[in-house]
Design goal:
Number of helices: 12
Distance between the termini: 25 Å
Structural class: alpha+beta
Number of strands: 17
Low-confidence stretches: none
Order of helices and strands: HEEEEHEHHHEEHEEEHEEHEHEHEEHEH
CATH class of one domain: Alpha Beta
Strand order of the largest sheet: 3-4-8-6-7
């Protein structure tokens, strides 16, 4: 099923007599959803773009590449640099803006500017009864009512089928530089990244690759400002070693897309934790591959079997992004949170149509 309009989609949902699996570009099949495929590919196109107001509105099936090109022509960007899952998951197709919002997909710059949901202004969606619902605004003012915008962002299509999203964009930067520290172990790398992030020098990326023994810190902005901050941050990090400045933006695409694990067999886990806890948890994980992002708050692990069992109780959550381990894909929720989530699904999708099994 590939509806061409919001009204057609609403009719399909209202008349549905079986579960529906919501499909965008098909590039990030995370979770174990079942049901008949309901594709949003027929609902594509940017409906409003006001560069001066830093606002963009697009239908859910719009390819991200189309939006990136449009923004670049005005020297603007999606500041949270959404991850492209295709290499890691071995998928094809084109990522869509609806899929990005539904999954709250964000990249290394999240640590500095926020996640996808922090840039959302409004949504339109169809609920499980076939009602067309809108919330928020098409612009950065007059955002009123219940905050369904953030609720839908990251719900993986379990509460409603997104049809249109509006979000804030930001100007692109004049230049960027990456400071690289070599030879740090995991604990020292996390300490160095924490020092950089707590400095006043506006670091927009902090990652550590143990396989290359390389710790990376990104600075962006006007050329003179970046040069000044790079020198100041180099001086600050002197206790951790001599930092080398390099101009290679592609480094951050590899961190964002976890390309180091793309052609390697094994399960890929996404671990979200307090940065200071990360080195100890990584040691427990006994993983074959590790990449630290968000100054250690996000850890990608290439592993086998039940990672959660090896980690034991910890503060945070582990998501199985790729693999066949016989465990829940998403971190099991505490009973009070699970009850709230079930109540929300019962309200928005009373017949249990949307992506059954996705969050289980």
């Amino acid at each position: 099923m590939t509806p061409k309009s919001e009204e057609e989609l609403a009719r399909i949902v209202a008349e549905a007599d079986r579960p529906l699996r919501i499909v965008g570009g098909g590039t990030r099949p995370v979770g174990r959803s079942t049901g008949a495929a309901l594709s949003l590919a027929g609902m594509s196109g940017v409906t409003l773009y006001e560069p001066g107001a830093l606002t963009l509105v697009a239908k859910a099936g719009t390819p991200l590449a189309e939006i990136t090109t449009l923004l670049a022509a005005e020297n603007q960007r999606l500041a949270f640099e959404p991850m492209d899952h295709r290499k890691l998951l071995g998928t094809t197709g084109e990522p869509t803006i609806g899929g990005m919002v539904a999954s709250n997909v964000s990249g290394p710059r999240r640590i500095a500017v926020g996640a996808c949901r922090d840039f959302m202004l409004g949504v339109r969606f169809v609920d499980g009864s076939g009602n067309i619902v809108k919330n928020g605004s098409r612009v950065m003012k007059n955002v009123t009512g219940y905050d369904l915008v953030k609720l839908l962002c990251g719900s993986y299509g379990t509460l409603g089928v997104l049809t249109e999203v509006s979000l804030k964009v930001l100007p692109d930067v004049e230049t960027q530089v990456t400071l690289v520290l070599q030879g740090l172990d995991d604990a020292r790398a996390v300490a160095a990244m924490a020092a950089a992030m707590s400095s006043p020098f506006e670091v927009t990326g902090a990652a550590h690759d143990p396989a290359l023994s390389r710790t990376m810190l990104r600075l962006e902005g006007f050329a003179d400002s970046v040069a000044y901050r790079a020198q100041a941050l180099t001086d600050l990090l002197e206790p951790f070693g001599a930092a080398q400045a390099i101009d290679d933006p592609a480094i951050w695409a590899t961190i964002r897309d976890v390309t180091a694990f793309a052609d390697q067999p094994g399960d890929v886990w996404r671990l979200s934790v307090k940065p200071s806890d990360a080195p100890e948890l990584v040691a427990k994980a006994q993983a074959r591959g590790v990449i630290y992002d968000w100054a250690g708050g996000l850890v990608w692990l290439l592993s086998e079997g039940d990672l959660r069992a090896r980690l034991g109780d910890f503060t945070g959550h582990a998501t199985l992004i790729r693999g066949n381990a016989a465990v829940p894909v998403f971190q099991p929720e505490p009973a009070p949170i699970a009850a709230i989530a079930a109540g929300l699904r019962a309200k928005f999708d009373p017949r249990g149509l949307f992506n059954p099994g996705m969050m289980g």
